[in-house]
Amino acid sequence: MSNKYPYQILPFKHVRFNDHELLLVNEAGDFYFISIDDFDKFIGYGLPKKNDVFLDLKSNHFLIDTNIAEVIDLLSTKYRTRKRFLNQFTSLHMMVITYRCNHKCRYCQVSSEDSGSYRWDMSPETARRIVDYIFCSPSDEIKIEFQGGEPLLNWETVKETIEYAEQKNKKSRKALEFVVSTNLTLIDRNKLDYLKFHNVYISTSLDGPKSIHDKNRLLRTGGSSYDLFIKKLELTRNILGPDKVSALMTTTKDNLYRITDVVDEYIKLGFDGVFFRALNPYGLAAKNESLHYPIEEFVKSFKEGLKYIIRLNLKGIRFVEYYSTLLLSRILTHFPTGFVDLQSPSGAGICGVIYDYNGDVYPSDEARMLAKMGDKRFLMGNVFKDTYYEIFHGKVMTEIVEKSCVETMPGCATCAFQIYCGADPIRNYLETKDIVGHRPTSDFCEKNKEIIKFLFEIIKDNDEDVQDVLWSWITKRDLKEIRGESFSRYSNQY
Tens digits of per-residue pLDDT, 110-160? Predict the structure, then answer.
């Protein structure tokens, strides 16, 4: 330690949190709230060593007055833990089994085809070829997700894929999992018996109460898609079990201002959580302006919905908001999350990849949607034309990795929330024709910054009961277990 200074300041970023406080975040994601007066003393090397703020900053690795090597080793371990998602490469493999669909949703992001357009089906031969490439991944965990269109319209290829993958896995011995992304309306007992036998999970869609769901999720043959969904949801749960079925909502202007009604609908139907997901401007969603809304309105609704969910938890109703949980995990722990949008470099192609019906390979579902709109900028290759190495170590993946590290991206490099966030090169390209993008006009950036700041406000308030709720989400444990006692207190804050 230099005799000139009483301590050494370690690298950190900061943002003004309110009129009298700053939020400090170091390179490993540790954070600390500090008054402006104390901050001035801190950076001016004027904090007394016995001062509580000095001790807090030292324990959180913002300054050091002892052996710096030990602290750097600890921070390095935390940082490597956050980047652990890079170790094994791609684990999520999505397959577009068909573009055919029995729905014509107003916001369809892939512009699905009608039920008779068989040329948009993936052939069994293509499916087997894709599975061969999937098992080239060095990851010990493999999840194959069937997407569409409506995958159940090409049921024989779904079955062929499952059975071929299971056969290959007898030798590979990977942790193998299957998910069918379906609107459920074509499900029947025979299909469900098959899915149960092969331990397949279901991901479905629910936009809220009947009036909202039916308005946007339209059956091509007419009638109520909601009524049919409810009927098939009950059948699916009866055979597979409730833990095998999850749902996603698409946020449009129709449910944006009824977010608590959406939450109530999910709870009524027995779901244990919801993912508040903003509308992606691809396919029909890009053309139908009546569905759109300013991103600040989404953030406002997000906050309202999150507060409502916290209140429900405090009343004893366990229910989770999944996007908040991902962000909270990144803020309050050093463990990585598998969500593609919150990775640096981008998780596109690294965490997940998608195979089109004809064997074309794209780094993300959004890249595939962009291709369906006529722009194949992110085509990585084709399983019949290119080797695994040429696809996953080619020009597209190299460029994504080089230009999606938030540590070096303009506007992200100096952001205090950088370590908790990620990059979306495909969305950047869609908006600016540049995969680096432009942060001041990016909805992705504004959304994440505002939501992360709101979560920090909740953390800063330090309401004991609310903190218990958040930790119950992160650790996937019951609230009573978190508290170690029967839950009795109720916070009036929310």
Answer: 889 998 999 999 999 999 999 999 999 999 999 999 999 999 999 999 999
111: left (phi over 0), alpha (psi -120 to 50) or beta: left
**Does residue 350 contact residue 336 with C-beta atoms inside 8 Å?**
no
CA torsion through residues 326, 331, 332, 334, sign: positive
Question: pTM of the full predicted structure?
Answer: 0.95
Tell me the C-alpha distance between 46 and 256, whole Å: 49
Euclidean distance between CA atoms 397 and 347, whole angstroms: 10
Beta bridge partners of 248: 205
3-state secondary structure the chain: CCCCCCCEECCEEEEECCCCEEEEEECCCCEEEEEHHHHHHHHCCCCCCCCHHHHHHHHCCCEECCCHHHHHHHHHHHHHHHCHHHCCCCCEEEEECECECCECCCCCCCCCECCCCHHHECCHHHHHHHHHHHCCCCCCEEEEEEECCCHHHHHHHHHHHHHHHHHHHHHHCCEEEEEEECCCCCCCHHHHHHHHHCCCEEEEECCCCHHHHHHHCCECCCCCHHHHHHHHHHHHHHHHCHHHEEEECCCCHHHHCCHHHHHHHHHHCCCCEECCCCCCCCCHHHHCHHHCCCHHHHHHHHHHHHHHHHHHHHCCCCCEEHHHHHHHHHHHCCCCCCCHHHCCCCCECCCEEEECCCCEEECCHHHHHHHHCCCCCCCCEECCCCCHHHHHCCHHHHHHHHHCCCCCCCCCCCCCCHHHCCCCHHHHHHHHCCCCCCHHHCHHHHHHHHHHHHHHHHHHHCCHHHHHHHHHHHHCCCHHHHHCCCCCCCCCCC
Whether the predicted pLDDT of 186 surpasses 80: yes
- How confident is the model over 389-440, as pLDDT tens digits? 999 999 999 999 999 999 999 999 999 999 999 999 999 999 999 999 999 9
The crossing angle, in degrees rounded to 10, of helices 322-332 and 464-475 is: 100
What percent of the chain clears pLDDT 70, i.e. is strictly above it?
97
Contacts (Cβ under 8 Å, ≥6 apart) of 233: 184, 204, 245, 269
pLDDT digits (tens, 9 = 90+) for 195-207: 999 999 999 999 9
* Token pair of 340 as six digits: 């593609």
pLDDT > 90: percent of the chain = 90
